[in-house]
Amino acid sequence: IAKAGSLAGAGAMVVMDETTCMVDAARRYVKFFEHESCGKCTPCREGTYWMANIFDRFEGGDAKPGDIDLLLDIGYNIDGRSFCPLGDASTWFPRSVIKFFRDEFQEHISQKGCPFKKALQEAVA
Predict the structure, then answer these.
(1) Torsion sign, CA atoms 124, 57, 97, 67
(2) Which of 23, 49, 33 is nearest to 88 (CA)?
């Protein structure tokens, strides 16, 4: 696993289908790392806190176009600056989600919230 650029113990695979909101998946991921942060180093403690708050803005319909790049900026400022690998790992998935699913972030902004939840509510109603 280390040769592939991953951490020991990170051999898990999460399977998601096309109905998964990738913004919410990244939000949940960041919230996990925010909870697990010991708080000793500022980049991890503050960075995961602010990333979680920004992801909450996307889900709550309050995100602005600049929030996408702000998430990336915070992620790049955590990576390589924390005492342990937890801080670094907290940024990898969200940065990848932004890279490959930026359009979903933009939809959250334009629709003032999660388009996946709205579609699900309409289908169930």
Answers:
(1) positive
(2) 33
Residues 67 and 40: their CA atoms lie apart, in Å, by 26
Highest-confidence segment of 11-15, 17-21, 74-78, 117-121:
74-78
| pLDDT tens digits, one per residue of 10-52 | 566 788 888 899 999 999 999 999 999 999 999 999 999 999 9
Q: Is the pLDDT of residue 1 over 80?
A: no
Half-sphere exposure in the Cβ direction for 108 (13 Å, CA): 28
Q: Which helix (H) or strand (E) holds 71?
A: helix 66-78
Joined tokens for residue 44:
């991890």
- Cα of 14 vs its chain's centroid, Å: 15
**In terms of C-beta density within 10 A (0-12 exposed, 13-18 middle, 19 or more buried), how is residue 114 classed?**
buried
Report how far residue 4's alpha carbon sits from residue 117's, in angstroms, rounded to the nearest whole number. Answer: 35
Go through the domains of the chain in sequence order and give each one's CATH number.
Answer: 21-124 (1.20.1440.230)
